[in-house]
Amino acid sequence: MTDGVGSQDGIGQPDDLDRLWTPHRMAYIRGENKPSDATSGECPFCRVPQLSDVDGLMVHRGDLAYAVLNLYPYAPGHLMVCPYRHVADYTDTTEEEAAEIADLTKTAMRVIRSTSGAGGFNVGMNQGHIAGAGIAAHLHQHVVPRWPGDQNFMPIIGRTKTLPELLTDTRQLLADAWV
Predict the structure, then answer these.
(1) What is the CATH number of the domain that holds 144?
(2) Does residue 74 lie within any of the structural domains?
(3) pLDDT classification of 29: cutoffs 50, 70, 90
(4) 78: Cβ–Cβ under 8 A, 6 or more apart, which residues?
(5) Bridge partner residues of 122 (DSSP)
(6) By 3-state DSSP, what share of the chain in percent is helix, strand and coil, each rounded to 5?
(7) Which pTM was predicted?
(8) CB atoms < 10 A from the CB of 139, how many?
(9) Are 37 and 137 spatial neighbours (Cβ–Cβ below 8 Å)?
(10) Are 79 and 108 in contact (CB under 8 A)?
């Protein structure tokens, strides 16, 4: 049994790590709001477009796809490009959907770079649960901005991620800069 600061009551050795409690992440860990199958009614990526841009963290709405901030970002400005259509596999997108996903990804990179000075990006899709897709039932492409030194002591030694602004502020900044 842990005492809450990383040590254990006589069992094993303390791990010497501090704890930064983030109880809001339990919904993600438990898989709440995660579709269990291909049913679009259960899917958060199908629900987001029905919300206001602010409530859904929507950055831009296209004709066939949209850009939305990640609720559990790896880095500030981490967003996802998703087709409106509930489709799991990239190979099942139409030519038009694939083209718009590519165009929105390019625009997202330009917007993030211009608003935050990102020095690089990780861009990609995890296709299927086995490949690490958190929500495998609905295709989504991650656009994760990177900066020199962003993997500094906080996540590596401090085992803590920092976000410099509220997600709603980031959403507004990116939405205002979207061309």
Answers:
(1) 3.30.428.10
(2) yes
(3) low
(4) 69, 70, 142, 143, 144, 145
(5) 144
(6) 35, 15, 50
(7) 0.72
(8) 26
(9) yes
(10) yes
Specify the pLDDT at position 102: 98
pLDDT-derived band of residue 1, with 50, 70 and 90 as boundaries? very low
- Residues 155 and 151: their CA atoms lie apart, in Å, by 6
Q: Alpha-carbon distance 7 to 39, whole Å?
A: 44
- Only one residue has tokens 């970002």, namely 73
Count: domains in the chain: 1
Does 129 qualify as catalytic in the annotation?
no
Nearest to 179 by CA among 135, 114, 126: 114
- Structural domain includes residue 97: yes
Catalytic position from the list 60, 78, 138, 140: 140
What's the DSSP call for residue 166? -
Mean pLDDT on 3-22: 58
Cβ 135 vs Cβ 45: under 8 Å: yes
pLDDT of amino acid 92: 96
Q: How far is CA 63 from CA 2, 99, 100, in A?
A: 51, 11, 8
Record the tokens describing residue 140, joined without a space: 């989504």
Residue 31 covered by a domain: no
Domain span at residue 85 reads 56-177
- Domain for residue 137, yes or no? yes
